Amino acid sequence: MGSALDDIRFLVDSENRVDALTALREGPCDRDELQATTCASAPTVGRILGDFEERGWVLRDGHEYELTKPGAYVAEHFMTFFDRMDTERRLRDIWQWLPSEMNGFTLEMVADGVVTVVEPGDPYGPANRCASLYRETDQLRGFDAALTAPHHFEELYHQVIDGMDTKIIFPPTVSENIASTYPQKASEVLESDSFTLWLHDDIPLCRVLIFDDRIGIGGYDADSGVLQVYVDTDAPEACAWAESTFESYRREARCITS
Questions:
Q1: Cα–Cα distance between 219 and 232 in angstroms, integer?
Q2: Which of 101, 135, 95 has the alpha carbon at shortest distance from 113?
Q3: What is the pLDDT of residues 196-226, one digit of tens each?
Q4: Which of 36, 71, 200, 241 stands the most exposed, by the fewest C-beta atoms within 10 Å?
């Protein structure tokens, strides 16, 4: 009869089997449809269906094949595992920069996001991606523990002066650094009717921003202060997490603008 591990090996050893199982999960298919989906030969599709039938995963109804209840169970849970492994593969090199210790955050939230990382010769890739989103939104909310890239503040400055409704939380050190580095522009921003600033003494080392239709999460290197990665997504779960997290920190922070 074999073991569960044998059935797992049976599936993962063949991309065609995975593709066929995925197609059947969407609904009944005939052999031609499965051949088009898998790009496999007719004999290969025939062998796959025979193996699925032998395991009790599919039934034939005329020219079509459909999953049995056990087959649907296998398809659902195998694809969940497959998707989670794909998420881990995409994020394995950057997860350490993400706020995984923050309450409620999960890697699944950003699994389908746009990932921008520091590249050789381009240390500001993540900051540039973040800055580009400023130009696509009318409202901005969030918190940022560092804001180290000079041109990042420049972009933020121009968007605030142009009327972008901005509600932001900084640590006092970041606010002081901006005020000393850009005294004139910092003063203009603080006096703008479209800008509200809160100070919080214990913001985690990350950047979480809420745009009109997506959110962005950035992670800093603790030693250099460089933004190492920026992931932005419109996933509803991620947006809801960012909203609730921002509101949690805002309630604890002190507002310094009128």
A1: 12
A2: 95
A3: 999 999 999 999 999 999 999 999 988 887 8
A4: 36
